[in-house]
């Protein structure tokens, strides 16, 4: 059995302990190592040029660095790139890179991260939900998605577009892997490492009571909530497990959620044709939005093979949006990116497994 320690899953403090106790080196060395791992995206101890040969040897003997391997890359016509990544135990997870052009004309990337292999929430419209829950991802695996994407971009794009924003909207429910989520957020913020600021990170949750308040108080990320339905009844139909926490209780928790100056939370509303896009739905949704400091993202459903749901007609979507605007709700239609590569949550892995079965 491999008893070496995987350094990518250690917090700064844990790395410091390892360096001082196990390697008998000074704390300063932990800072160097951290910088190599997180800022320089290093995967090989030998490349750490300011570290002595003897330390390289010690590191090799007691530890290793990990990065998920890329199993499959799918690129959409709109530039969205989806990766199927393999973890150490062979499990597959997904991450997506979504490019956009910033005001200064440079390409900026938003990366969508997974936090669990599969998901226990079983939302009826979601492909990940169909996989069921396998296990939580460690911090090394969660942030390994960023490291794998950075290495890929450096290899294939000479101009190095940078990963500007991170959204925890991939496979899994982040708040059900709370400890590793918080550890990942802290590592992302660390000045000697990736140095992401709060406003560049968004954590999306279907609304889990445990951990929600703490996430707000940590001020480590912005919050997005997958609402998807404006009443408890409809929500229970679409998201049976999430709805175990009653919509009214979720809304009260959101009313008292810690927000900083000028910060607003995001409500995500997957628009399912004929299911949650009626004038009555708009009315209920307006009531909810008037209670919260929130902006609303309307996400037209990405058609998934075998799903009972369908995308809304463009006409209906616009009518729905207009009804909201008429009551001063900031609703923005988010064009689904990467539709031709099935970039919505869990779709790539689902499709990949299907293709393996039919081989
Ligand atoms: N569990 C968390 C994180 C997953 S994010 C949460 O529920 O927020 C999942 C997001 O993917 C959902 O908010 C939804 O907007 C999006 N999604 C899932 N299936 C989709 C589909 N078929 N089409 C478009 N978006 C989808």
What report would you give on this structure?
- With 359 residues, this protein is of the alpha/beta class.
- The chain is 37% helix and 21% strand.
- The strands form 3 sheets. It has a 10-stranded mixed β-sheet with strand order 3-4-5-6-9-10-11-12-13-14, covered by helices on one side.
- Helix 1 (12-22) packs across helix 2 (27-39) and helix 10 packs across helix 11.
- The longest helix has 18 residues, at 139-156.
- The chain is elongated, with a radius of gyration of 21 Å.
- The relative contact order is 0.12.
- Bound molecules: S-adenosyl-L-homocysteine.
- Residues 125-126, 169, 173, 204-206, 226, 268, 270, 299, 301-302, 304, 336, 344-345 line the site of S-adenosyl-L-homocysteine.
Total of helices: 12
Give the distinct bound molecules: S-adenosyl-L-homocysteine
Class from secondary-structure proportions: alpha/beta
> What is the strand tally?
14
Quaternary organization: single chain
Q: Assess the beta-strand content as a share of residues.
A: 15-25%
Mean pLDDT: 92
Strand and helix order: EHHHEEEEEEHEHEHEHEHHEHEHEH
Strand order of the largest sheet: 3-4-5-6-9-10-11-12-13-14
Proportion of residues in helical segments:
25-40%
Overall radius of gyration: 21 Å
Largest sheet: 10 strands, mixed
What distance lies between the first and last C-alpha atoms, to the nearest angstrom? 33 Å
Shape: elongated
Which residue ranges are poorly predicted, with pLDDT under 50 across at least 5 consecutive positions? 354-359
